[in-house]
């Protein structure tokens, strides 16, 4: 395998770990409960999620649920309609930081949005040690690069495992600005095929906003929700149970 292919393979492996946590465990599991995490898996995700993704699971769920409640309004925590495409990267970071603070201080409506989640904000954030996951993965990357003698594997690993801010920007910005519509949802959500392919089905924002409780985000025969495929793999491995298996149907 060539050096370039090794770097791509390491990046994709790390990226897959990150997106598995986000789209299966955080999004379809904790946020919408369209899949049920087995009790031991749920505890494991709550304990490891912040370390793996550098994103607090409770804050992520809170922010995401508020996005659905307030989609593309002035109160949406991340809407390109309000902030523009490029500024949204900073906006979503500031919204995430604000969500963490408001949850730790017990402020409504943040607490109300995640009242069903029986765990606190991760101790890393409560203690102001949010940077430790980034440091940990930098060390892991350096170990991989040193052990293999291929130094570019280090940034390939780190960029893959710490990729959620870019994933989120693609979904939140491009998925609410460019694409096609299957449903009239009263917001600016779009189905963006390229984002859906790159972010495991998350780019089908229009479909998802129409029926958030569906574990499958694709509707048309040619729409490919790779995140649902990950759910099928996780279910076969005994990690989750897909609930309801709701199927979206297009209007008309």
Verbal overview:
The protein is an all-alpha fold and 252 residues long. It has one domain. It is 58% helix and 2% strand. It has a two-stranded antiparallel ribbon with strand order 1-2. The chain is globular.
Strand order of the largest sheet: 1-2
Give the termini separation: 50 Å
Structure annotation, total helices? 13
Share in helix: 55-70%
Uncertain regions spanning at least 5 consecutive residues: none
Keywords:
single chain, 252 residues, mainly alpha, two-stranded antiparallel ribbon, 2% strand
SSE order and pairing:
Layout: H1 3-31, E1 35-37, H2 39-53, H3 57-69, H4 80-83, H5 88-104, H6 110-113, H7 123-126, H8 132-148, H9 153-161, H10 164-174, H11 193-198, H12 205-210, H13 226-236, E2 240-242
Antiparallel strand pairs: 1-2
